[in-house]
Amino acid sequence: MVSIIKNQLLKHLSRFTKNLSADKINLSTFKGEGELSNLELDEIVLTDLLELPSWLRLTSAWCNKVAFRIQWTKLKSVPIFLSLDEVYIKVETCEELRSLSMQHGLSSYTGQGKYSFINKVIDGMSIAVNTVCVTFESPAFTASVQISRILVESRTPKWEKGDLRVTRVKEVGRGQILIFKELQWQTVRIEAKSTKDENLSPLRLLTNQAHCRITIKKRLSDCFIVGSRLVLILDDLLWVLTDSQLKAALCFVDSLTGLIQKSTELTRTKKAARKLEELPEYQAQMSQQARSRDAAEASSTRIFNRYDVVETSYHFLSKRIDLHLCDDAGGGRSVHPDLKDGAALQISLERFQIDYYPYHLAIGDRKHWPVYRETASPHSQWLKQALTSFRTSLLDLIEPVRSQHAPLGRSNVASPPSSAGEKQTTPQAEHMQKRPTLPQPTGNPLKNYLLSQLAKLMTSCVILRVQDFSLYQITTNKRKQMPKEFVTGDRIRYNLPVEEMILHAEFTYYYYPGDIGFPLPPPKFYVQINPVQVRFDVCSCLWLNAFLLNLHHSLMATKPQQPAAMPYIDVKIEAIMPRIIFDCSVDHPNQKDRPKSLHVEVSRASVTNVRTLEHSSRADLAKCVDTFQLGSLFYGADFPAVFSDYNVVTEKFFQHLRGTDNIRSPPQVVASSIPEMEQKLSRELLWTESKDMWCICLEPVWAEFYGTPAVGGNKPVSFLDAVPLTLWVHLKFSEPVEKDDKVQHELLKRTSPQSGRLLPQSLGHVNEKDPCSRVADIHVLAYVSNLVSVQINHYQYLFLLRLSEEANELTTILAIDTKRIINAPNHNPSLVVGAMVPQVEVTFVMPSQSPGKECSGGDLESVFPDSASLQEDNATASVPSIPYATKHIELQTPEEPIRYQMGGEIELPRGQGIGENALASTNIFPNNFNTGLTSMKKGFSSIMNTLDSALKSSPDDASDTTSLRSGDDSSDSEKYVFLDHSSDIGDKLLGGVDSMFSVAGNVVEPLQPLEVACEVVEEEATTTSPSERSMDSSSKRRDLVSMSTFKLGQVEFVQQSEGFTSVIKVQVSRVAAEECSSIPWDELQNKFDCRSRAWNEIPVDGGCRPQVTARLTHTVVPGELLNRMSLKNWTSDKLEARVQDMDLELNMSSVVGLADLFEDEIIPDPLPMQIALDNMKLHLNEDRPPSNITSPGPIPVDLALSKLCIHRGKDGVFYFEPQTATAMESAVSPFESNGSVQRVEALEEINRQLLIENRELKRRLAALERVSEENHLLRQSSEESQVLRSCLAVAQDDVAHLLEEKRSLLDRLKGLQDQLDQSHRSKR
């Protein structure tokens, strides 16, 4: 008996082992126990059996002892137990990829029979391994991995221990079975050492206990593995790395990147065809009949649907990762005095998760993806729109004039959830209910071929999610205090739900099964950042910059020099409620009005290099460029511009808004047959648009001071009122640009022969007489369409002065570190920023000089709305409760919490509300931004709408009592009821496939029940208001202040920097002043918040000269850095300004107050300046009380300055001189000659001619502006027509789909009727 069993064991094990004999097997038949010793496995067979990647080869595998235990009478319920003592494995990389033709995996060794009892026994085995040692060898490094205490067991679908019979879920109707296995180990120790570079530090990593959960789906007919889901869950991970160790790790990874990339592409194309056939979407396409799901499903089917593996995926999850980065001594450290001895940075990540889906159909949805909410992510809509646009462009290649009603595919924003982008794939049965539309055959064989290939388009998607993270400020020998947060999530401030991630990033890559050169959509990279805060810290920024630069430079030194090329990828980054905090470095307890921090906040920020209709279209860029055309600073050569300045609006912006900056010629496919068309197609055929133009949209941005003791530490004081801002950024790359001959010819026709600059069409004028056309590395155009309102007092001014010193210190040392670390002393990066603001209003708040004369209105009414209108607006804007959606979330502000209850109401603090326009309009911030804002000025309606769309659509968050999606069959809560028999929110959150991501001690805390949230809201609503009013009244300021508001019309701003030299140029078209000698501080703040609502832009007379022009030059000459004070000795500044045609009326109290306001707390170094005054009038009213009792009364002072020049040198002495023509020309135009009278006369003649030409150009400009507006409307109409075209295509596709279903149903009904008639005839 024993010998028979031994022979059977030898028969089966000899296929996997070497030199196995009967004397190595000890067997006790009746006990069901056995033992094998010195077992050597066949590495070739094991390589194929484990389906190792083609870049890996198993060289040896050996086990010293194997013991097994079999309970013969309980094989159905108790698994076979295998125990291995020590396992040694050697693996090496292959120079060339192994052939995949012989790799069939486990199915080639288990036979092709049906799934039987033997397969159940084998799949249910439990394995325990004491130690596994893996030695990895590659040409670049060697590594060893030691894993201890490994245990492999079968689990229930809820990943609990149970009877072996409940560890499988079988669906006989589909012929499939699900198997659940869990792999655990106690510790993993990884060591790696370079074999090429001895200077690289060895790498060591130690991890704690981990769980690996695997769900396997097999076919019952042949035991073939259809798909699997693998989840690797690690406990808390702590890793301390120096920059040399991190450098070594990146070098090790980089040495394998090429092999892994080739292997991945080969494996993906080979396996994708097989995976494609198993996807329900593709099965529905291939079947030409509509199927419906039975109303009453069997219990096994419901359970199977709940845990089904629709597609293969891999997941990594860690509850917490703590990473400590340290820098080694050497040239990689910053030159800052506090960083010369090194520093350390700590990064903490909570619930770090990576998901990888290698085989996903592009037209399929993502509802079956674990812990993923497709409807809550704007990324899904972006992908659908991009895919629809790609299909349209591809079909237009073969049918340029095809009808706009052609079926493009069922993907659009307005399409119902049954479209191709919203296929329900959670259980496979629902795929049969809503199948994708099969492209209808047409008479055009080329079109049919394109549609058939598009139906096979697949994606490989990588998702990174972080629930919360903290990046702490660096610690040094001098900064040993508790670590402070540098960049961190703002979950507590806004009370985000547990399931909301702070960081969500997705990378999507498109491909086709098999190696075919068919056009592909460009890869997509999307990042969504929920509220985060950044605390500005000079040392942390400098250390991080030096650390990353040193790391990058070391990696690039090991590679051959290659020109930098921008990858072709669509990028979209969105951030909700980010804020930057600038803290005061020194505490001033005796200064009650001195703030402790400045908060710069944005409701919603987006960064993208894709032209979409949402604030980043070419029409928006054209509108921005048109605005810059109205200014003379950006194109003229007069002061404050000089001969060698950079261009602000370069040719690139004009080319991009016309679409003539493509990186390659537009595709042209003219073919009469499929083989001929295949020769002209390529993967990058439609990758034509330039990706180096970025749009940054901030809607809106505002700034507030916090920590002022006089108003309460947690109450904000407005500094910058909310204003929308759009930035257009061009990054210059040195890659060649391919253009079509016609495009080049068109550009040459519109190029100036004098300067070579592109002359725009219908976009205003460009300075044709500029002999110099310089382009910087980065060009930024800032577009502001609203009033910019700022207020500031003396102590806030001091705060900003100290902050500017820190910013100067940061930029200077950043430039020094960059040049030194990358070893490029001659490299001078350049940056140009231009801004055009229609109006800037700066309010200077000062102590009142006449406390007995409180202002009751007067001049202030022209600056702010009066109190009556303000109370009216507050009364209409303060809505006590607004009906909204269905869920509860609490937004915490420093003042009072804003409780947000979906399905109930929004309860705001007193005096705050939401404008009707903000709730009714789908555009969060329309063009007239100030119309829809009430006293709720910070745009909280934007975040409310965003959170509402992100939360109300999630099936996991559906309420038991009220739900917007209670009738949706795809709701996960409906599918979970059968197994859980519970409606608890925690069970729903962790039910189904999501339970794979929960471990004991690593479970996400569920949300509080909705009833508790409702009680809290009601409690707040019923709280008595007298106590609240008393608290508010006790914290109000009753002191009187004076204010002076300067209105600056059409402000043009240019900042350019190159190396260690920077220049700021400012030009103001008009200046006006408004004053109020006495006003309560609280009333001033309330009216300041409402200032921008009633603002209307005042047109500027183009024929007038600008009243103020200034040029500030900042130069840094680096020297020896002993301490922070050494930086002041490196810098030199010079101010040149011209004031002309200005008429101001000011009170003497305001003049004295302004002098006190601009007084610094330290004695500054004199700023050299040269100011020219031309035709300036100043009327000074004496409003101060007289100092003598014999004073006859206030007497105003009138000053009229025709021409005056003010000089100041480094000694601080002011010189007042009469302004002469020669002196002024030399002062404000440094590039002109000083010694030649003939040269001056020639220049004056040129100036007269230029004035005549300017008058003519201004007359033409008026006509061109009207044409430009018409062009804007045409561009917008064209883009809207594209959207409508897609909508119409989807509608026709829906109609075709319904007609096809109707025909199918009629055919089926006819068949049933024939069967019924035949049965009647047979009965007769």
Automatic annotation (TrEMBL):
Q: What keyword terms does UniProt attach to this protein?
A: Coiled coil
Q: Could you tell me which InterPro entries the record lists for this protein?
A: BLTP3A/B
Spans of biased composition, class Polar residues?
412-428
Presence of the UniProt keyword Coiled coil in the record: yes
**Coiled-coil blocks:** 1240-1315
Pfam families with a match to the protein in the record: BLTP3A_B (PF24917)
Q: Where is this region: Disordered?
A: 406-444, 951-973
Its recorded name reads UHRF1-binding protein 1-like
